[in-house]
Design a protein that fits this description.
Length: about 400
Amino acid sequence: MHCEALEVAKTAQTYLDTFKEPPEELIEVIKQNLDNHSLYPRMLSSFARHIYPAPVSIPLLELLLASPHTPSLRGKWWEHLTQVKPSLNLIYEAIADPWTRGPQLMKIRRRLLRKFPDVEIPGHIRARMVDRTLNTWNSVTIWANKVPDGLTGYKSRWIPDPEEVQAGDEDAIDGSQPDVHVPMLTVEQVAISHYTTSGYKGMHLENTLIKHIFTLLFFDIIFFVAPDFTTEFMTAPNDFGTPEFFERRTDEIRARVEEIRGWSQPHFGDCLIEMDENLRPEQPRALGLNWSLPHSVLREVVYHLPCAGTAIVCESLALNWGEWQGGLPDLVIWNSSELRLVEVKGPGDSLSDKQRCWMDLLVSCGWKCEVCHVKEEGKGRGGKRKSYQEKEVG
């Protein structure tokens, strides 16, 4: 099957090197093979994205959208097709497709509003345009002292309040004051420092915590239901991250999701701790598990996680790991009574489409989320910016 797919790809490349559009005979070859196996849509999808945004990709993308296979990739296909062929009817069709979701839906909606700002949008399309990003999340702004760009060789580094800088250390900031040492902080460390002053603990975990929890909760389904391994050393089955992974395990995954939704908070935490303790001694290499995550931290945070919300997040990861595995908030912040996920943004930075989708999904299913904007002291709220140069050295 793979050899046949490679032959189709070679034939397509030969024609693409010669013609501006695929000739009819190539289209027929692709049509004959699209329905044989989902391998062909995946191969052709990569091929179409490789030549995108050339107009030659249009008939290939149209063929993919006419295929019943790999529906979870339809959003990407629509995104590319409406970029190279931005007709109003095509954009309407893309938005109406229920498989156009998340970042792709957001991009296509923006394309509609940008290309056709004065058009009267039909009701069923307008309904899809508010399908996501209805939720709001908390936003906080903190101020810190940013090291001037180009001075230290680091990008976006920050320092504590100059009054807290201690003299007498060997390192200098700029070489002119060798007896002053200033600790350099990342923007995430600045945010953690802000939350710790309010009694919270915090770690910069990004995707680590939720991916680790997902694999713990679905470990048996991932590795022992419909096993598809080439060697015993693989960290995930061959179909993991493809639409077939969910399709082959739909009943088991949905049953597990419903089971988790029905757990009490203490039972949920106890189960996660037990699963981690059973696997941690041998620390198996499995996609999603990260044994650098301290067990002590896991024990502190899992009893604050929303059961139903965690189940929904895990279902999204199982359905489309490739689409959802990145973009989770930077920080996990917790105290004795609550847990928050915090996305940190420095000056000039903003949420990406994927991050917005994650924030919306998390908030909609019960997670406490917020965006922490770190801004440079003295810029945007008046007053003179304090800097290390103002620190007097005795």
